[in-house]
Design a protein that fits this description.
With 172 residues, the protein is an alpha+beta fold. The protein has one domain: OB fold (Dihydrolipoamide Acetyltransferase, E2P) (Beta Barrel). The protein is 30% helix and 30% strand. The protein contains four helices and six strands, in the order αβααββββαβ. The protein has helices spanning 3-29, 45-50, 52-55, 121-135, and strands spanning 30-34, 59-69, 76-80, 87-91, 107-118, 149-161. Strands 2-3-4-6-5 form a five-stranded mixed β-barrel. It is globular, with a radius of gyration of 17 Å.
């Protein structure tokens, strides 16, 4: 392992550990959804994308800022990664957990099972068309050039903080 990889592993470990300390601070001002969250450390979203096979089918916990919420049924939230231009969707069973549409911009910790869905080209086109319709954008099928693989978390619980800033670690 190179020195850079050791440093990155260390930083991911520190990032995850900091969320353990933040959980109690979040619980004071936040709201639990579903089964809530456990005491374990969060996995960096970038780590899930970098080594997805290591986490498939396993329970994981992620943390970050909510960047989008399903505006129709509150059945998913999208959480920003620790790496720019990357995020992870936490999808829950419709009607079992309903995320508030005003959660965008707030901080969250979410738990669930990490999953992979391989779409064929027809499914990818339908998925992209649906995404465009949800976001009020016009769909251009010519922009879809290859099938997609979707990584998501099948959510079992979450904690969304009422604040719009990252919570401070307990030792700060």
């Amino acid at each position: 392992m190179t020195r850079r990889h050791r440093f990155l592993d260390y930083m991911v470990w520190v990032y995850g550990l900091s969320w353990v300390f933040c959980a109690s601070a979040l619980a004071e001002n936040g709201k639990m959804y579903g089964d809530g969250i456990g005491e374990g450390a969060s996995v960096a979203i970038s780590k899930l994308y970098d080594a997805p096979d290591e986490h498939l089918g396993k329970a994981v916990q992620i943390a970050g800022r909510v960047v989008k919420v399903c505006q129709h049924r509150g059945c998913w939230i999208e959480i920003a990664s620790d790496r720019e231009f990357e995020s992870m969707i936490v999808k829950v069973e419709d009607g079992v957990i309903t995320f508030p549409v005003d959660a965008t911009g707030k901080w969250a910790i979410a738990e669930g099972v990490f999953s992979k869905t391989v779409l064929d080209m027809e499914q990818t086109l339908k998925h992209e068309e649906h995404q465009c319709a949800e976001e009020g954008r016009e769909f251009d099928p010519s922009t879809v050039t290859e099938a997609k693989v979707l990584y998501r978390i099948k959510g079992t619980g979450a904690l969304i903080d009422d604040k719009t800033q990252a919570p401070k670690a307990a030792d700060s």
